[in-house]
From TrEMBL:
Name of the protein described by the UniProt record: Nitrate ABC transporter substrate-binding protein
InterPro entries: SsuA/THI5, TAT_signal
Organism for this UniProt entry: Phyllobacterium brassicacearum
Signal sequence residues: 1-29
Keywords of this entry: Signal
């Protein structure tokens, strides 16, 4: 089975179990259409569980599974989806896309990985091809920032959606240098001990995933947005306090059934590492997240201007976060 057909099969399976990979069409009244710019994986359990809890509180949610974050943003702008997941700073500033981030989900925890038979250090990647998630993604920003920090210029940048897909390509040898999340880094270490080197990443603190929507949608659907943000915060707090909660939520809502029962151990280990790193946003991000993002994405060359002069309101709508923190308290 080719990679493309395998991803298609997985998308269909996910559609049947965690929502609907719906064709992009007109909205149904009262529904919130959320566009995932990737196949949901272990790192998505917090978000998927928050969505299920929002459904229990009366928010009608449809999931739309897309190939990358760019498509998710385009779906929001085109009116085929209501809420997207990503960190679309470049699109907001450089393309003038009329969207705003309204809640941070998690901060960046990505690991640049190279085949140790070909490369040993960042210097070895000068002029070499690397693969990242998508144009404007956090994975691309990390690679560009670290290239700048190490005084090198990357060669061709390929866009390969899906951390698991990039991991498999590294194992198969079709990629020599890429970047993966924590779960797939551990999988590489287990599947091919000693074959890969994880390159160091220093001083990176920025949004990996955040919710975004148009200003009009946020204003017109404030009640539903508030519920989603509250559940996202509560889920993040519970998992950070006790990573085993991620497994409980996965089983309660029958999330990611393709992983099988063996996935529970991997999920708990992933969220234990995530909790220790403080990667899940407990208070929705907001102004604090925007400040860190401005510094990071400016250094990475994805947004322009002095980070100190960039305005939060040009990129974020923090009203739902403020209401949720007022209701739930601050952590």
């Amino acid at each position: 089975m080719t990679k493309l057909s395998r991803r298609t099969v997985l998308a269909i399976a996910l559609a049947a179990t965690i929502g609907s990979a719906m064709p992009l069409g007109p909205a149904h009244a009262g529904n919130m259409r959320i566009a995932f710019g990737d196949l949901p994986g272990i790192e998505s359990i917090q978000t998927l569980a928050a969505i299920e809890r929002a459904k229990e509180r009366g928010v009608g949610v449809e999931l739309i599974i897309l190939n990358d974050e760019d498509l998710a943003a385009q779906a929001i702008v085109g009116g085929q989806a209501d809420v997207g997941i990503g960190a679309p700073y470049t699109l907001i500033q450089k393309v003038g896309v009329p969207i705003r981030l309204f809640a941070q989900i998690s901060t960046l925890r990505f690991f640049p990985v190279v085949n140790s038979e070909s490369y040993k250090s960042w210097k070895d990647l000068d002029g070499q091809e690397v693969a990242v998630q998508a144009r404007g993604s956090g994975t691309e920003a990390v690679m560009l920032l670290m290239a700048k920090a190490n005084g090198i210029t990357l060669g061709k940048i390929s866009y390969v959606p899906g951390s698991e897909v990039r991991r498999n390509a590294l194992i198969q040898g079709t990629l020599k240098a890429s970047i993966v999340d924590a779960a797939n880094r551990r999988a590489l270490e287990a599947e091919a001990p000693g074959k890969f080197t994880v390159l160091p990443v220093d001083n990176v603190s920025a949004s990996d995933e955040a919710l975004f929507a148009t200003a009009d949608y946020l204003k017109s659907n404030a009640a539903d947005v508030d519920i989603l943000v509250e559940e996202l915060m509560k889920t993040g707090r519970e998992i950070t306090e006790n990573p085993a909660v991620a497994v409980e939520l996965r089983n309660k809502y029958k999330l990611l059934p393709d992983l099988g029962a063996d996935g529970d151990k991997e999920i708990e280990e992933y969220y234990k590492e995530t909790a220790e790193a403080g990667s899940l946003a407990l208070n929705g991000g907001g102004t604090d997240a925007a400040t860190g993002d401005f510094a990071f994405f400016s250094l990475a060359g994805q947004i322009e201007g002095d980070p100190a002069t960039l305005k939060v309101d040009d990129f974020w709508d923090v009203s739902a976060i403020d209401r949720a923190v007022a209701k739930l308290g601050k952590k």
